[in-house]
Write a structure and sequence with these properties.
This is Indole-3-acetic acid-amido synthetase GH3.17-like. The chain is an alpha+beta fold. Among the domains are: 158 residues, no CATH class; 138 residues. The chain has 21 helices and 25 strands. 45% of the residues are buried.
Length: 601
């Protein structure tokens, strides 16, 4: 396997390789694009855009359109249904990577070749090396990572489709590498029953608590869910530790077999200690209490995951939060070279060998209204729904020409048949490491709430809620997670927010002061843009409604999406609900409802 040599080289010379990649970022990008074009100019998709085989880089940017998933979905569907992969790529497509499916509805199928899959396996090794270089003691114990898989799906072509993490955890590279330093036995990670998997992984983490130097998961939402699971099951976990016997409901044979080599004897003293810690009414600093040797909490906490930062800081008790990397199902973007930076200050450094990157300039604040772009080559037009004007949009720039302080939407050309593909993620350039740009991850710019002419994006919503929750913090109230939907069942329609709140000192529901909650509603509305305010003033949109739900309601929402095919390990809580069933779940947990003043503007 070609990747194994590369993996060994990274273990031996990882930091040197990283320096070379970032120092030659421009050259690597140009070489990558040239190689992709030479290999794939004859494919059905690319050959349409080159006259007489003139497939050099300038023709690529002038002729090949910038596309979304919907534009190329017919080609991907043909490959999934059994046609040759040379429709998009000269090399054979070996599998499909599924997107998480919770950001925009149904999962996407992203083609993957053996080469592109192997390249992506480099990222976690680089991340691990950087963290061990910057945080002392990580190489002197085990990592308690909560990893989960999702069942694979066979396409009509016979090619399998799965989450990237599911495929990665099944590789020998993972099993013989990073898995050896994790507390969780591989069979508990590969268990398809998420509840049994979660229980066994938590039990193992508690049994090996003195060896754990790092706790983590792919996304912050998984850690938040794991703590809620611990709240529900700590008594049973203590009973297993005290008696030395695994609960009977753990029925997966591989899990039971794996746990038999870890849960080998009664440990009443350990059980008593864990019980004493968990019986405390306040779980502030619980992670530090249960795992005293932990040096950091590693999980993606940027973008939509930033809403979990206060919660993890509360449970962590001062343990540094590390957001290690940034990417998407389509491509890996970059890694965090300063893992001890504050969560809201995290910048990632582009890895120039993962894809060919272009950057489409967007509004200076990274937000504003989403627009429908008609892009082809170096020119574009933007159609505005609020006016009849057509405005020219700046053409995309390459890695060498991004500007510090500017916001860009990422466009990738990959090693597996995506050409000038709009990922949808927005980045703010913060600097350079050698010649490779560094960026902060901004939430997706897609519209989440829409009534009449108003279109409110994830960025707009996140900024508004961030301002509003400041009112609650002096009162000791934490906003643990949120979502929203546009309620058009009545005329005029209104935007509805769902907030799950808790007191800092306990999981008790805070006393909800109507004036305070109405003030939060008003701050959210004041933070929206001129279009929203005009429609609100004109009576086209009704007063915003805020529904507070009880503790654990959003865990039930996660369970719902997991039951529909989402992966617990890559679950991203939807910032806006499109499913009536999902709205019903949150409504069932509602304990209070509040409105903005009827006449605000």
């Amino acid at each position: 396997m070609a990747g194994e040599k590369e993996i060994k080289e990274i273990y031996d010379n990882g930091m040197k390789i990283l320096e070379e990649l970032t120092s030659k970022a421009y050259e690597i990008q140009e070489q990558m694009l040239e190689e992709i074009l030479i290999r794939n100019a004859g494919t059905e998709y690319l050959s349409r855009f080159f006259v007489h085989g003139q497939n050099h880089k300038q023709n690529f940017k002038a002729n090949v359109p910038i596309v979304t998933y919907e534009d190329i979905k017919p080609y991907i569907d043909r490959i999934a249904n059994g046609e040759t992969s040379s429709i998009l790529f000269a090399d054979p497509i070996t599998q499909f990577i599924q997107s998480t499916g919770t950001s925009e509805g149904k999962p996407k199928l992203i083609p993957m070749t053996a080469e592109s899959f192997e390249k992506r396996m480099v990222k976690p090794l680089l991340v691990d090396l950087v963290m061990k270089k910057c945080i002392s003691g990580l190489d002197q114990g085990k990592s308690f990572y909560l990893f989960f898989v999702k069942p694979e799906m066979e396409t009509p072509s016979g090619l399998m489709a799965s989450l990237y993490t599911t495929s990665y955890f099944k590789t020998q590279i993972f099993k013989n590498g990073l898995a050896k330093f994790c507390t969780s036995p591989i069979d508990t990670i590969l268990c398809l029953d998420n509840k049994q998997s979660m229980y066994c992984q938590l039990l193992t983490g508690l049994l090996l608590r003195d060896e754990v130097v790092r706790i983590g998961s792919s996304f912050a939402s998984v850690l938040a869910r794991s703590i809620k699971f611990l709240e529900d099951y700590w008594k049973e976990l203590c009973s297993n530790i005290r008696t030395g016997f695994l609960s009977d409901w753990i029925a997966d044979p591989a899990c039971r077999n794996a746990m038999s080599s870890i849960l080998t004897r009664p440990e009443p003293e350990l059980a008593d200690l864990i019980q004493q810690i968990c019986e405390d009414k306040s779980w502030e600093g619980i992670i530090k209490e249960l795992w005293p040797e932990v040096k950091c909490i590693s999980s993606i906490v940027t973008g939509s995951m930033s809403q979990y930062i206060p919660l993890l800081e509360f449970y962590g008790g001062g343990i540094p939060l590390v957001s290690p990397n940034c990417g998407s199902s389509e491509a890996c973007f970059g890694i965090n070279l300063e893992p001890l930076s504050k969560p809201f200050d995290v910048s990632y450094t582009i890895l120039p060998n993962m894809a060919y990157f272009e950057f489409l300039p967007v509004n200076n604040d990274g937000g504003g209204k989403s627009r429908e772009f008609k892009l082809r080559g170096a020119s574009a037009t933007e159609s505005s729904e609020s006016t009849n004007e057509t405005t020219t949009v700046n053409k995309p720039v390459d890695l060498a020409n991004v500007k510090i302080g500017r916001y860009y939407e990422v466009v990738v050309t990959t090693l597996a048949g995506l050409y000038r593909y709009r990922v949808g993620d927005v980045l703010k350039v913060t600097g350079f490491y050698n010649k490779s740009p560094q960026f902060q991850f901004v939430e997706r710019q897609n519209v989440v709430l829409s009534i009449d002419l108003d279109k409110t994006t994830e960025v707009d919503l996140s900024k508004a809620i961030t301002k509003a929750k400041l009112v609650l913090e002096p009162l000791g109230i934490m906003l643990t997670t949120y979502s929203s939907y546009a309620d058009t069942s009545l005329t005029p329609g209104r935007y509805v927010l769902f907030w799950e709140l808790k007191m800092k000192g306990s999981n008790d529901l805070p006393k909800l002061d109507a004036k305070i909650m109405e003030e939060c509603c008003g701050i959210v509305e004041e933070s929206f843009d001129f279009t929203y305010k005009s429609l609100r003033k004109g009576g086209v949109i009704s007063a915003l409604e805020l529904r507070v739900v009880k503790h654990g309601t959003f865990d039930e929402l996660m369970d719902f999406y997991v039951s529909k095919g989402a992966s617990i390990s890559q679950y991203k809580p939807p910032s806006c609900l499109k499913s009536e069933e999902a709205v019903k779940i949150l409504n069932l947990g509602m304990v209070g409802t509040f409105f903005s003043p009827k006449t605000m503007f």
